[in-house]
Structure formats: structure tokens, C-alpha cells
């Protein structure tokens, strides 16, 4: 008789970029949006703010789940903020705000912090940490800023830019894990899983270097 149980990851985020990143890494999460009001949480340190928001998001989703004895469920909450010029920047308020930010950021650097909170629902254990990556912004023109803001992309993301979308062309580079800038650091996720006595390979649901599908691997010993 097998003593293995299914392992399930629930992503407490509506971010398609985070889900896409996990998918590319062979992980197929369920998605349950937390509904946390981010504007109600304040902090003077970017690292503390993003970690507290990640924790609140994960805890909100855990509270809506009904654990099953034959399934080990993990909930992952993430949140990203940009520390720039002494300020903590989340999503811009509107197009004018996004434009002002880019006029300040071009040619300079900021640090993108992403908080991660991983909760094991059955065992009621938690592992959490912040990943930080320095971002070097290109010296973009006024015309490029206006065109980028007009696409709407900067309005939906922390810091008013992406690395995996249109905004990637306006970055000179990053110093650190690019996944942190996307909103989820896979190396950090691997370390957090280790703190819960799990491996990232336990979450793999497909291995397809040539596009082939294989049976799910997401099981762990009970």
C-alpha cells in the first residue's frame, strides 16, 4: 500500500506572470486570489512591506481552504515593491504617475523586493523570505515613455515596469535573480520548500524538454 499523498500548490496571486513562471518551471499551481487590500498595509522598509503583504495574502487564502487528509496543500503568497530614491513604489496610481516615475527612473537604478510566504496547510508550518534584485533602467526618451505608458502595462505592475513584457527593452540589466523582478524567485522558492522538508522537484507536474508530456510527479511521502 502506498504511503504517498498528492502535493498541491495554491498561488495566492492574480499575476499571470507569476503563474507563467511556475508553469515554465514544470509547476502547475491552482490560483486563488487573496483579495487583500494592499493600501491598508504601510511600512517604512520595502522589505518589511512586501513580506507582510505576501504573508497576509497567503494567510487569507489558507483561511478559505478545506484541508484534505489525502492531499498536502501549500499556499504561496508573493508581493513586490520597488525601492527607489528613498521611496517605496507599488503600482502607479494612473498614467500621469507612471510617466513621472519613468522620468525619474531613467538612467538610474532601483531595487525590486519580492516577499514570499509559503504555508503548509496540513502541518501548519510556514517559511518566508524576501528576494531582492537591483534593476538598471535605460536612458529612455520622452517619446518611449509616452508610448510605453499608453500601452497600459506599467499601470498593472509594481514599479511601473516589467522585465518579461514590453518594459524589458527599457532595462539595461539586473543584478540578481530576474525572477524576483517578474514577481517570484524560483531559487528562493526552492530554499523555502527545503525549510518545509520538501523539494522543488516534488512540485513538478511535467517534464517536457522536447515538448512531451509525462505523468504527474507531484507526490510526497505522507
TrEMBL record:
One GO cellular component, as annotated: cytoplasm
EC numbers for this chain: 3.6.1.9
Cofactor(s) the record lists: a divalent metal cation
Biological process, per Gene Ontology: nucleotide metabolic process
Entry's localization field: Cytoplasm
Keyword Amino-acid biosynthesis in record: no
UniProt keyword terms in alphabetical order: Cytoplasm, Hydrolase, Nucleotide metabolism
Active site positions: 79 (proton acceptor)
Organism superkingdom: Bacteria
Top EC group: hydrolase
Record field: catalytic activity: a ribonucleoside 5'-triphosphate + H2O = a ribonucleoside 5'-phosphate + diphosphate + H(+); a 2'-deoxyribonucleoside 5'-triphosphate + H2O = a 2'-deoxyribonucleoside 5'-phosphate + diphosphate + H(+)
GO molecular function terms listed in the Swiss-Prot or TrEMBL record: nucleoside triphosphate diphosphatase activity
InterPro entries on file: ITPase-like_fam, Maf-like
Summary of the function given for this chain in its UniProt record: Nucleoside triphosphate pyrophosphatase. May have a dual role in cell division arrest and in preventing the incorporation of modified nucleotides into cellular nucleic acids.
Family label: Belongs to the Maf family.
Name of the featured protein: Nucleoside triphosphate pyrophosphatase
Organism: Micromonospora haikouensis
Amino acid at each position: 500500500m502506498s504511503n504517498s499523498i498528492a502535493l498541491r500548490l495554491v498561488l495566492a496571486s492574480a499575476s499571470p506572470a507569476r503563474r507563467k513562471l511556475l508553469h515554465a518551471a514544470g509547476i502547475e499551481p491552482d490560483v486563488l486570489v487573496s483579495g487583500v487590500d494592499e493600501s491598508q498595509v504601510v511600512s517604512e522598509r520595502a522589505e518589511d512591506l512586501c513580506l507582510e503583504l505576501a504573508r497576509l495574502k497567503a494567510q487569507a487564502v489558507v483561511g478559505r481552504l478545506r484541508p484534505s487528509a489525502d492531499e498536502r496543500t501549500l499556499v504561496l503568497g508573493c508581493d513586490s515593491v520597488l525601492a527607489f530614491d528613498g521611496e517605496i513604489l507599488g503600482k502607479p496610481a494612473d498614467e500621469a504617475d507612471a510617466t513621472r516615475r519613468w522620468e525619474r527612473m531613467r538612467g538610474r537604478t532601483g531595487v525590486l523586493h519580492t516577499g514570499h510566504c509559503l504555508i503548509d496547510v496540513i502541518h501548519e508550518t510556514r517559511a518566508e523570505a524576501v528576494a531582492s534584485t537591483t534593476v538598471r533602467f535605460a536612458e529612455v526618451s520622452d517619446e518611449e515613455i509616452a508610448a510605453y505608458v499608453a500601452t497600459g502595462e506599467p499601470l498593472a505592475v509594481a514599479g511601473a515596469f516589467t522585465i518579461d513584457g514590453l518594459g524589458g527593452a527599457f532595462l539595461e540589466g539586473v543584478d540578481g535573480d530576474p525572477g524576483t523582478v517578474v514577481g517570484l524567485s524560483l531559487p528562493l522558492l526552492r530554499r523555502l520548500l527545503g525549510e518545509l522538508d520538501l523539494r522543488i522537484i516534488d512540485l513538478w507536474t511535467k517534464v517536457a524538454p522536447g515538448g512531451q508530456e509525462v505523468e504527474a510527479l507531484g507526490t510526497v511521502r505522507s
